[in-house]
Amino acid sequence: MIALSDIHAGMSVVGADGHPVGKVRSVEGATRLLLEDTPTDGDTHYLPTSHIVKITDQVHLDCPAATACTLFDQDLPAGENTT
């Protein structure tokens, strides 16, 4: 089980291929991370936490970085909240 409380601002987020996806700015409830310094445009974006598979000194995702970048800013499913 992933403990989102182990994630803190400034941690690097990497895809399954080891490539960078961004740095954690904050954890938004139980469903998404707010990332900054993203490789696509250097801006801030939301990423669903459902793709996190491991937390070490980095946040590791279950998909390659390029795929993770396509998941940025997807809306939350209807009725889901971020708390």
From TrEMBL:
It comes from the Bacteria. InterPro entries: DUF2171, PRC_barrel-like_sf. This is DUF2171 domain-containing protein. The lineage of its organism: Bacteria, Pseudomonadati, Pseudomonadota, Alphaproteobacteria, Acetobacterales.
